[in-house]
Fold each of these.
Amino acid sequence: MNNSLKQRLTGLWKGALRVNSTCRLDEIVNHDDIKQIFAKALHSKRPVHLLLVGSPGSAKTMFLTEIMRHYNDSYFTVGSNTTKAGLVNQLFERRPKFLLVDELEKMSLADQTSLLHLMETGLISETKINKTRQMELTSWVFATANSCEKIIKPLLSRFVILEMPEYTFEEFSEIALIRLTRENVDESIARVIAEKVWNELGSKDIRDVIKVGRLSTNIQEVPFVVKMLSRRANK
Ligand SMILES: Nc1ncnc2c1ncn2[C@@H]1O[C@H](COP(=O)(O)OP(=O)(O)OP(=O)(O)O)[C@@H](O)[C@H]1O
Ligand SMILES: [Mg+2]
């Protein structure tokens, strides 16, 4: 291999490492493909809008909160909480580079239209008592949803839609172990909890693991707590 080719390859490799190491989504276990896409979007020169779609407890919100934690020029909002005036106002005030919208499907039609306008034109505008204000804003929109049903089609088409893959039992156990040991639950108890939540409760939601972990004082109590939760789940 000649020297210039060697240098170019080394440069490319260093570039790839830099992109991955500055993505800073390490708290999220697995989902490596989705992390890679986020790393690319976070570093792209022009806006790329990402929508995470998946079942409850699959770490969608976590992606947004991790970005919020590490990027000061981000703004986090929940779809159900935004009113048109509220969202547009906040955008005027904060001018976020990364706009993080959790539960996009719960956003009102009016807010979805404002968002569409922003993504399409790079402009936000507001009319109040015959006065219109307008501002240019270049934002990357990262959003989450449980399903796409209530999201208007033109808005959907502006997103790169990423389906969160369902966890396998091995992935579920790994995440459960990490989360529970962080809460000082013994590793052997954590393994039993993960197994029972998956098999007896039929749940793939890490939140159920945490509930059982917090309610069980010792390993003997785990089956009882899981039984109580499954009574409700079977109704
Ligand atoms: N891959 C993961 N790595 C670390 N923690 C995880 C992972 N997946 C789920 N969790 C944990 O599970 C819980 C739920 O995650 P999160 O709130 O991000 O789910 P969600 O996909 O937004 O769910 P919902 O659709 O109900 O809003 C959190 O406590 C989170 O820490
Ligand atoms: Mg969520």
Amino acid sequence: MTKLGLAGGALAAAAVAGEDIVATAGSGVTKPRVLLVNGSPHMEGCTYTALSIVAQELQADGVDTEIFYLGTAPVQDCMACGSCKKHPGRCIWDKDAVNELITKAREAQGFVFGSPVYFGHPSGRLLSAMDRAFYAGGGAFEGKPAAAVASSRRAGSLATLDAIQKHFTIAQMPVVSSFYWNEVHDFGPEDVMADEEGVSIMRQLGRNMARAVRAYAAVPAPTAVERKFTHFIR
Ligand SMILES: Cc1cc2nc3c(=O)[nH]c(=O)nc-3n(C[C@H](O)[C@H](O)[C@H](O)COP(=O)(O)O)c2cc1C
């Protein structure tokens, strides 16, 4: 996994050390891969730390992980130019990380999208990246298990999770959950690790995701229904 072993990752590693971890004797993909997208401008902040905990559990279960950082530079929102309809799988705007995200998504069997809560919703950078990645490269995500993670000081996590999950549920992606909503509360990475319930939620999410990626990879997708595309007036 890239970028683990930094501050938050080390904290997360320590949190899971010494515990019994039973490797899943899964079928299907021998070494599944989960892409975890950090929608925070902070490379090693709270969102990253929460994602690192999930990643630690996935790795312990034999799943490859990568934490993908969108950076601090502006992320363009969708211009609705339609170029991706002529060139599926690629956004015409090549000056940020979105096309790289689509490329990495093709190689992944599952996803975790994490965001800080900004005014009760996901970061603009994550929403813009997801809008464009799913619009231009939806096929890279379709039918693969996915989870949302929210990091907030105090409030707004549920609306944030809901906004992220909307991308999943029109792409036939099963939403992976934990024993509570996937949220941590903090001001800094140390607070994430001190949020014992949040840590346990992330750990269970990692284990559930490991199961989901193996299960979905093992069973072929159903035959597609012919899709109707209307806008209600004709
Ligand atoms: C512009 C902005 C808006 C924020 N809005 C909220 C909010 O609505 N609710 C909340 O609890 N925290 C809010 N916060 C705090 C962050 O969500 C919180 O510190 C988060 O854990 C930071 O994660 P990060 O370290 O991964 O960036 C806001 C922070 C910023 C910068």
